[in-house]
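Reply to dn_fold:

You asked what the input looked like. This is it:
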Amino acid sequence: MNYISERAQLRQSQLADLIEEACQHLEPSPYQREVAQQRYEGVGDWLAKSQDPLLAEIAIRLQGSVAIGTTVKPMGAAEYDVDLVAHVPDIDAVISPAMLKHRIGDRLRANGHYAPLLVEMPRCWRLDYANEFHLDITPSIPNPGCAMGGELVPDKALKSWKASNPMGYRAKFERRAKLQARIRSAFGRILDSTIAKDSVEPYPKEMKLKGLLRRTVQIAKRHRDLEFIDDTDGLAPLSIIVTTLASRAYEFCVGNFVYDHELDLIVDLLRRMPNSIETRVNGNRVEWYLWNQTTVGENFCEKWNKHPERATAFFEWHAKLVADVEKLAAARGLDEVRHLLGDVVGRSPANAALDALTARVSTARTGNRLSVTKPAGLIVGTAVGSTPVRGNTFFGDPR
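and this is what came back:
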């Protein structure tokens, strides 16, 4: 078995620490989270207390990146979004999507605070808190044709219902995120919040150590945002595609391989992301499919088949993502690490992560409290079985 050296392990542990630190800088601030939570709970409570018989049993749920813990702050002045599902149980597809959406809109307009913030989108209602974030509220009803508890949501034209399963998708993602990677010489800790079943779901608690899957999704999403910062043609890969491909690849990797370190797993995971995309030849053109495994009939890549340039953009971006992370994993020296980490997650998070790690290491070395342990990598403090670190070997030659 090929065990890496302690010095190489130290370097890999420090890079993993940096990625973890940088990802924390990608997330909304504690203040932003608090404000978003308050406004989410407020609108959820308002909808849940509707006297409209159609909305009497409405249940407000989170979906998307906030729900699964993979949010990244948008680039520039853009607002980040909090996606909600307004689910109406005990109703069938006889009611039109337009009617249900209209009734939800009426309830929101009846509140003097929400009325001026309300923006009608093709499939949902948006509460736009300018320069902060927006809440997108999508109606849904049960899908009697889905044995997995799926839902139906409006299509873009509001003429018919289409299959989806936000709660099932979230549960599958969380199950995958809990899978423990087999690492020969490092550590991996995953924390998950529980799902509460109520009319208004509790806002997720903040997780500091989110685990390899969530962090890899955040890395990929931020790299995408950097690469498509000037995109005006809708070419940037959708978050649902990035998240789905990453979670499937993670499940495959941790179930089939043992890795020397977290970074080895991250690189392998990223390489394997496209493997879940199905292709079919229809006449003289290629069609792409990435099926939602929690319901029948939802193809996350459906827009690629109308706009093949989006598929081309995805594969070109994915190749660059893998190349940039591979370069980071092989980086030597603080300056190179700073530069290459900036290529992956942006200059500001990279600089913040390097500065924070350098400060911790300097403080620990001054107090003779810096050591590396075989199971845990870099730590501040001393432990039984640890090896003191002398001199600045960080990100140097791993031999």
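Residues 186-197, 371-393 have pLDDT under 50 and may be disordered.
Hope that clears it up.
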